[in-house]
């Protein structure tokens, strides 16, 4: 075996391994539409071909493992969020009362009314909001289907948009897969050369 053959075999192996993994990565998304070759046999990217099944699976995983309606309700009961809800609700009620106080009511009486109402809202509103969340929580949990929402949103996206989302998250990992293919191909080439020399 010539010296250039010793170098060329691993290099060709690396090239074949890299191209093979490159095609495999591209085949995740492309072609977007099925290309019919012979009879009923066709070629299509994995994501476009199985997008509905993938969307359903992702929705179920998100609902079961990542995000539940109960988590959202508990987050709304946290002091920071509850304070914002109370502040917004109190402000809305205060504005409604101000609009409905007759113009002829003296300013001092108007001020006393608003101060009393403000104190009452500050004391009672947090309990009222928590009670509303507790009472509505069960119905919200029954009505809101996170898995279905995620599935519908993913199915509504253009396939190119889905590709961009996935690549924005996993482009580095996919590039590593291509490089690993080249490295493995190079190593396989070295093994072939070693086997040839040992058997010679």
Structure overview:
By secondary structure, this protein is mainly alpha-helical. The chain has one domain. Helix content is 82%, strand content 4%. The chain is built from eight helices and two strands; from the N terminus they run αββααααααα. The protein has helices at residues 3-26, 46-49, 51-66, 69-76, 79-100, 107-143, 146-156, 159-199, and strands at residues 35-38, 41-43. A two-stranded antiparallel ribbon has the order 1-2. α1 (3-26) runs antiparallel to α8 and α5 (79-100) crosses α6 (107-143). The radius of gyration is 32 Å and the shape is elongated.
What is this entry, summarized?
The chain is mainly alpha-helical and 200 residues long. It contains eight helices and two strands.
Q: How many structural domains does the protein architecture include? A: 1
- Oligomeric category: single chain
Low-confidence stretches: none
Class derived from helix and strand content: mainly alpha
Task: Tally the beta strands.
Answer: 2
The number of helical elements comes to 8
In spatial order, strands of the major sheet run 1-2
Helix content: over 70%
β-strand percent reads under 5%
Secondary-structure element order, N to C: HEEHHHHHHH
The rounded distance between the terminal residues' Cα atoms is: 10 Å
